[in-house]
Amino acid sequence: MTTHERILIIDFGSQVTQLIARRIRECGVYAEIVPCTAATLDALLEARPRGVILSGGPASVYAPDAPRLEFDVRTLAEHHAVPVLGICYGLQLLAYQAGGSVIPAERREYGRAELFIDRTDPLFEGVPSPTVVWMSHGDAISQLPEDYEPIAHTENAPYAAIRHQRLPIWGLQFHPEVHHTADGARMLENFARRIAGASGTWTPEHIIASTIEQIRQRVGSRGVLCALSGGVDSTVAAVLIHRAIGQQLHCIHVDTGLMRAGESRTIEQLFREHFDIPITVVHAGELFLERLRGVTDPEQKRKIIGHTFIEVFEREAARFPDVAFLAQGTLYPDVIESRSVAGPSATIKTHHNVGGLPETMNLQLVEPFRELFKDEVRTIGRALGVPEWFLERHPFPGPGLAIRIIGEVTPERLELLRQADEIFIAELRAAGLYTEIWQAFAVLVPIQTVGVMGDSRTYEHLCVLRAVTSTDGMTADWYPLPHHLLGRLANRITSQVRGINRVCYDITSKPPATIEWE
Description:
With about 525 residues, the chain is α/β, with parallel strands linked by helices. Helices cover about 35% and strands about 25% of the residues.
């Protein structure tokens, strides 16, 4: 565990708990999420936090099975001088613990509301009154507990913000972490920096320096393997690890034959020419396609690709007998998504690489980004000199184009999809829309439709285009591409990709759909 100063966030099941951590980190303070079931007083004190935030959650504090804490949060503030901030459910838990009354609200409040600040308070330093906040609650405080006082209200919530009269404890009924709360970032910064006294040293330079030192101490003179998928996470991890241990790092890129157009060549050139980092490129496309022949079930595709990847990777890894570690681009969401309010998970996700960690290799993991979000990795990449055009690339699934070809994966279908996908991305870049979109790609559907080209009838493939906006991939909205661009895309794909005669655009959000099709 890292030794830098931190704000601990106790998670009660809110869908936006990760946003609290991200907002705190944006002001230069490290924030860490802890499931409420693991948040014992001893564990919190051992972590020596500067402050503690209680997240929102879907439960009602008065329900018999509602998530609670085994200790009174006033103990943190009164006996250990640790400030506490409760958000939504966290506010209600503060009040409930202290003897206040929480009941179903007469008028549930969802969406934007105007917050009026009633008392001068360090939490609201620099925040105008009124200010727009985002509400999402079905319960409300009907009676404040002893020693608490209101400091802000909305039309429907007289206790929209409260504080303890003697102790450093605050509560907010609204969500300061979401984008819709106009001055929410300022409020969270006030808590972390002004109230909790964090110095704000969580910077890219600090992260790089401390991570390099940790890697050197742990690895020593032994070797590290890195499986380069071609994505941002593994690439930035490799560059950082190489800066720490130099030639002890061995990078392997397996070209599965399921990559985007020019993908493997781009990775090879980036590492050899831009970074001067040795890389082994294994061209295994024929093997993967042979194993996938006749397979149509999506889950079976994934398993075949994962097992084959491990087989190829293990064979290449045997060429480096000094290796004792495997580098993975594990991100913080990969870790915390496997935990739950009902209890910490016994396993941590390792499927962000194609096959995960091969059990037979007996290698220790090096995960330099285990505490970072995706946007933080991009920031680290910029500081390390990774080109911007690479850092801004859209996510690409580990199984590659195999899960964007519905049905059997064949060389002919792969080529059709590559061409269509390349046209799609090129047009988005030309229109200046690429960086506004989280992920965009083409899908080849095993449905042939009738068409007319010239004087002949055709019976060719259907191509579906998908573009979504998102912050972390957990939820996503379809992107409203301009009609003239959709028309240009359809014209280019049907005229330039022989074998596709119809183009559709997917306008389904996540949920109910997923981002990928398989």
